[in-house]
Amino acid sequence: MPPSRAVSSDLSITDDLLRNAGRAPARRSRNGSERDRSAQRIAPAEFHPQSAKRVAKSRVEVVRAGGWDAWPWLLHGFSTRTGGVTTAYRPAQRSGELNLGFTASDTRENVLENRRLFLEALGAPASMKLVTLKQIHSSSVRRVGRRDVAASEPCRGDGLMTSEPGVLLAIQTADCIPVLIADVKKKVVAAFHAGWRGTVNRIVENGVGKMRVAFRSRPEDLIAAIGPGIGGCCYAVGEEVRSEFASQFSYAQDLFREVSDSDPIREKYPMLFLTQRPPGHSNIGPSLHLDLMEANRRQLLDASLRAEAITVIGDCTRCQNNRYFSYRGEQGFTGRMLSVIGIRS
Ligand SMILES: [Zn+2]
């Protein structure tokens, strides 16, 4: 067997190992064309802007709650990392990614282009504009409208609500839980950001209360979607988090479980990691995991929403790190997704 063939075959075995364990390997090229492309350092968009945009656009994926298209006036969606023009987080990857947050590692131009691509994939009319927040893990909910679209500084808080058409409420996350709510009778929409602190602060329960006061929304008319975020499978937290939840919620014990930490790739291929752990440290002790999606579902139920009106998308951003940005999965060096909801203008 010629040496080149042997190398290629070894790599493909490793790729298969990684793929089987749920981790996509970095792309490798057999014919060398990819290497040639990066060596030239030509950004295709500079030379063929139309074709580059078409490619990026076609790959933008929008996750939606099933059945919500029954209300044609209602526009909503959760972004993923696929599509887009960002190359900061996976430079070895051939195609760009859809970072929608103004992070330190990405350019403003990239984020604006990604937001444009996302709204296009969402099917939002050009007249619809985003309203974002400076998120602070609070229970603060803002009522906004078209006047807030042009605001130079987003206001502080973790919830947005509106009854004005043409405004797209946007929550930014990379593991935290986004929650979208619509009042399908009064045509009101709301969006919430729920990390563990916001959840302890009852951001969603408080948000439904604000909708009732501001718009006279009735809980039986509300539908809710809990979007992709870090799942109970991956969200290890400290004892202090359990104490905080226990002090706030009678059902706190239902939200936590002790998990013996495991890594599927290490379990399946222990030989790959033989030298990485000191002798005598072969097992990691159990850790405490919090199910934030369930915590927010319970808040919606406590706010009197009907169980069947609540959609839990259920995707774990860390388990599906190739599809979603995950702060924990990438040790903080990652992009941001947007979850949006609005009334068509
Ligand atoms: Zn997970």
Distance between the termini: 65 Å
Shape: globular
Low-confidence stretches: 1-57, 277-282
Q: What would you say the CATH architecture of one domain is?
A: 4-Layer Sandwich
The radius of gyration computed from the alpha-carbon positions, rounded to a whole number of angstroms, is: 22 Å
In CATH, the topology of one domain is named CNF1/YfiH-like putative cysteine hydrolases
The class by helix and strand makeup works out as: alpha+beta
Number of strands: 15
Structure description:
The structure is a single chain. The chain is of the alpha+beta class and 345 residues long. The protein has a domain at 47-229 and 315-343: 4-Layer Sandwich (CNF1/YfiH-like putative cysteine hydrolases). It has helices at 3-20, 33-40, 44-47, 49-59, 108-122, 196-200, 203-215, 239-248, 264-268, 292-302, and strands at residues 62-63, 74-79, 82-86, 129-131, 141-143, 159-162, 167-173, 177-183, 188-194, 222-226, 236-237, 256-260, 286-290, 310-312, 337-343. The strands form 3 sheets. The chain has a 6-stranded mixed beta sheet. β8 (177-183) and β9 (188-194) form a beta hairpin. α4 (49-59) packs across α5. The model is unreliable at 1-57 and 277-282 (pLDDT under 50). Residues 231, 233-234, 316, 318-319 line the site of zinc ion. Zinc ion binds next to loops.
Draw up the topology in text.
Blueprint: H1 3-20, H2 33-40, H3 44-47, H4 49-59, E1 62-63, E2 74-79, E3 82-86, H5 108-122, E4 129-131, E5 141-143, E6 159-162, E7 167-173, E8 177-183, E9 188-194, H6 196-200, H7 203-215, E10 222-226, E11 236-237, H8 239-248, E12 256-260, H9 264-268, E13 286-290, H10 292-302, E14 310-312, E15 337-343
Parallel strand pairs: 4-7, 5-6, 10-14
Antiparallel strand pairs: 1-2, 2-15, 6-9, 7-15, 8-9, 8-10, 11-13, 12-13
Helix pairs in contact: 4-5
Residues 231, 233-234, 316, 318-319 line the site of zinc ion.
